[in-house]
Predict the structure.
Amino acid sequence: MIISKSIEETRSLVMQWKKENHSVGFVPTMGFLHEGHESLIIRSAAENSKTVVSIFVNPIQFGPKEDLSSYPRDFEADSAMCKAAGTDLIFFPEAEDMYLSDFCTYVDMDGDLTSRLCGKSRPTHFRGVCTVVSKLFNIIPADRAYFGQKDAQQLAVIRRMVRDLSIAIEIVPCPTVRESDGLAKSSRNSYLSPKERIAARVVSKAIFEGERLIKEGVSKDKALKAMRQIVESEPLAKIDYIELLNLDGPLLGAAAVYIGKTRLIDNFIYER
């Protein structure tokens, strides 16, 4: 497994692989990898002859009061997981190389995809996501890129960006990976105290209940009310949003909930 901090070296390696007729899969991450990331890497390695993982905590997708400085990092553990899961190349750049001192070009998106849900409470977030992902797609011209469905809005935004900008890459959605009690895997789960970790179960409970009710034909209003009641029953939980809406396709049930100071997201997708 190769580890590269260089944009030029990384692009050159991937271009050489493509000249040699290798298919290339790409898994973009911010590091502190867990089993959810691992599942993306394993799938990429199964479907492509070469797999690239990027590890980069992207500063421009964090708001001024968000957790950039405290975001968990463990490159040694990340690289071990990458190697075991079948990664051929880790791209591990520095922020000053990704964003030069006079950097002033951004990829932004208007409309419902970015103005609702996380885009409403984090108004600059998706500009940062679109900018870094478009940069990564230019540096790593892979055939396929793998994203988890836990970040359903991000997945929809990236799919639309790829379509709108005619980027030659296939976006592959992958199922949410969960803990044994249902909590969606997230790097931010490490912030939770033992008491908060128990409280966090209300997020997935609300998602599972909303999905069950919708599948049974219950109205959106009643399903939403039931989801909110589950979360509101937990004193440590504070709702950012719980919504049922069509987000560029099937019905999405989405929740963002603060457990203490930690913001957790989860969702279900329902296609009739």
In short: The first strand starts at residue 2 and ends at 4. Residues 126 and 154 are 8 Å apart (CA to CA).
